[in-house]
Write a structure and sequence with these properties.
Strand order of the largest sheet: 4-5-11-10-12-3-2-13
Number of strands: 15
Structural class: alpha+beta
Oligomer: single chain
Helix content: 10-25%
Order of helices and strands: HHEEEHEEEEEEEEEHEEHEH
Shape: globular
CATH class of the largest domain: Mainly Beta
Distance between the termini: 15 Å
Length: 303
């Protein structure tokens, strides 16, 4: 099995083994390795973007549940080739990488240049939410919804996506509804103070190392004086590409028993290496495991 999550890879270090005393909670590496196939789902090709840059590919899964209009619009922009030849023109170290049409002048065909912000989901039932126990400084409750780190207000059932590392969101100006084409990705630590201030509508499945290779901006707010150094070759919807060009990725289901146990393991840290166990897990520190489809792994191993 090919584990693709950076946090999952950390769990495979030599010290990551559960002790007998903590046998009720398995180590993260064991949970991921032994998760049954029905605890995984294929990445949604109809709602996955391939952002191809000069440094490589970034794979982004979108969330039409939380931001249907933004999801539709960026897919329309991708399909009309809007981003082809543009750039990731703002890269602020430890913060965000922002791309699109810096000039604001590139013609748009059928998509929209600006949209009404989709900051929250008006109602999310508790059954659709996999919680992370414990306090949070930015929300009454945090957890996961269909593969995305999220937050929720149990008093109103309102929910929203969280600005964890890899969050894919729409940049905007001072006007709330001014965003529509300029996306940004959180490349540093979680920027939770931005929650409910911009539209988060996806997350990076694979390609954070690609983003880290981009040239950093030296100007104010990380703007690049030569943005073409971070040229965007193209952005495409995965489902629109031939099968041979798609990445057959699977994401652990965040409503599965394996993922619930993984949350507990991140909280209690059963590995022998740990001297101090904080009995706490932040929603942004619980990585969602990713793997290549088993049939692909079998083909590779047979060669």
């Amino acid at each position: 099995m090919n584990i693709r999550s950076p946090l999952a890879l950390c769990a495979l270090l030599p010290f990551a083994f559960a002790s007998a005393a903590d046998s009720e909670v398995r180590a993260p590496a064991q949970i991921i390795a032994e998760a049954p196939d029905d605890h995984w789902r294929p990445a949604d090709l109809d709602n996955t973007l391939y952002l191809d840059t000069v440094e490589g590919r970034v794979i982004i899964e979108l969330s039409p549940i939380f931001a249907p209009a933004h999801t539709r619009n960026i897919k329309a922009l991708a399909r009309e080739g809007f981003y082809d030849g543009l750039a990731v023109y703002r890269v602020a170290e430890g913060f965000v990488a922002q791309g699109g049409d810096q000039s604001g002048e590139k013609p748009i065909e059928g998509a929209k240049r600006s949209l009404a912000a989709e900051l929250t989901l008006a109602e999310l039932s508790p059954e659709a939410f996999t919680p992370v126990a414990g306090p949070d400084g930015y929300a009454p409750q945090t957890g996961f919804v269909q593969g995305f780190p999220a937050a929720r207000d149990p008093d109103t059932d309102e929910a929203w996506l969280a600005h964890c590392q890899g969050a894919f969101a729409m940049a905007r100006g001072a006007e709330l509804n001014s965003g529509g084409t300029e996306f940004y990705i959180v490349i540093g630590q979680a920027q939770r103070y931005l929650d409910r201030n911009t539209t988060v509508f996806g997350r990076v499945l694979e390609g954070m190392t690609t983003l880290q290779k981009l040239s950093r901006g030296e100007g104010p707010m990380g703007m690049l004086p030569q943005p073409e150094r971070n040229r965007i070759e193209r952005v495409r919807v995965a489902a629109d590409l031939p099968e041979k060009e798609r990445a057959p990725l699977q994401v652990m289901k965040t409503d599965s028993d394996s993922f619930r146990e993984l949350i507990a393991a991140r909280r209690h840290r059963p590995e022998d290496w740990f001297v101090y166990r904080p009995d706490y897990a932040d929603v942004c520190a619980v990585g969602i495991p990713l793997r290549a489809a088993p049939e692909l792994s079998a083909q590779v191993s047979d060669k």
